[in-house]
Structures are given as structure tokens and as C-alpha cells.
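Final report, closing paragraph on structural work. Over the funding period we assembled a curated collection of sequence-structure pairs, and we close with a single example.
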Amino acid sequence: MGRFFVLPHQIDGDTIRIEGGDAQHIGKVLRLNVGDEITICDGAGNDYQAKISRIEKNEVQSQIISRCKADTEPKLRVVLYQGIPKAAKMDFVIQKAVELGVAEIVPVMTKRSVVKLDAKGAKGKVERWNKIAAEASKQCNRAVIPKVAPVMNLKEALSHMQQVDLKLIPYEAEDKTGLRDVLEQYAQVESVGVLIGPEGGFDQMEVEMAREAGLLPVRLGKRILRTETAPLAVIAALMYAYGEIN
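Its predicted structure, as stored:
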């Protein structure tokens, strides 16, 4: 009962320490007791079955019963570059993208972004978004917690995107190439980056910048999808096309 993430320094031989909020959650919310079994993840793809040996206010100790390599992580690495939307839409996108198996999320400020963040505001948002990613990872049995990167402008995001094999930019004005066309052409890739625009979409100059950086504009069908719908549709399609959903 229960699934918890720890950092490497919290694992010492056969003993694992769970600290802070998770420790309080074990004792006060789940009301687990000494002798109860829990699943612990080290964030590097390893699962530990452990038995609680001691419960304190801010720390729970457990003894490892068994360990194994987690099999819940997709082989395909998908990085989502999300134009920052307003209100709770970003929270929703992060939560659902993590559930679908995304490896990393990069918040991107674009010309038409309604939300404007200064350095202090951006830092606070990213901290909150990482907490949402962590909670979503626990809920859906991920073996790692996808990172929400610091907020980037478009130029920075395009540079960061050079790490992936296939770079996509869904764009409503693209009238020739569909997502299916590209996926049929690129049948063997290890990583994909997807750049999604904010509520107002991309400026034409931004699309040209993306093309010059090697991104492929694709359409997602006959309908225009909202900024919080498009990334989830693309991630799900990628996971299906590359055998992660069967």
C-alpha cells in the first residue's frame, strides 16, 4: 500500500528513509503502521518493496525486502515544449503529459503568450509545476519523476530541442504534412520533441524560426485543438505509433 519517491542519499544499504511530507502522509493520512509494506522508487527506474520499521513525525524508516527494475517507463523519450497558457491549463497539461509518459516538460514563453513571468514568478511557477509532476508520477506508477525545466524563450527552447531525434511543431496553417505522414516516415527514433503554441498560437516568424531549427510543421487533422488538448493528442499518438500503447 502506497508508492513513494526518494533521493539516492535516503537509501543506505537495506534501509530507506522517507522524509518530510511523504513521511507525514504515511502516518497521518494513510495511517500505516510498523510492519506494513510499501513500494519505494529511487527516481532512476528502480522499485523497492520495503517493510516499515519505524515511524516518526518527519521520517519513516523501512527495510528493503526486494528490488527490481521498474517496467513502467516508455523506451521512447518525449520532451514537451509547451507554450505557457493561462490559469490552470498548464497544471492540467503537466499532470496528463506525465501520465502519458512524457520524459521532460519545458515551459516556453512565446510572442502570443498571455502569461508574462518575471524571474521570480517563473521560479515559483516551476517549483509548483515540479510538485504537480511528482504527484502525477506517484499516481500513475511512474518509475521516474519527469522534470519541468526552467522557463525558456523560444530561441532557448529551439536550442534545447536539438537534443532529440525528431522535432515537431503542430501548426494549424500547415496544409500538406500531417502527423501520420511524419510518423510513417520516421519509423525508428529514440526521442521526439513537440513544440506547442499558447492560446493565440504561433506568430508566422516563430514558425519560420522553428523551421530553420529543423522542426517539422504538422497538422493534427481538420479541427483546431486547444493549447491544452494538442500536446496530449500528440503524445498519445506518439506512444501508440512507437509501440508504447498496445
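The two ends are 27 Å apart (CA to CA). Residues 119-139 form the longest helix (21 residues). We thank the funder for supporting this effort.
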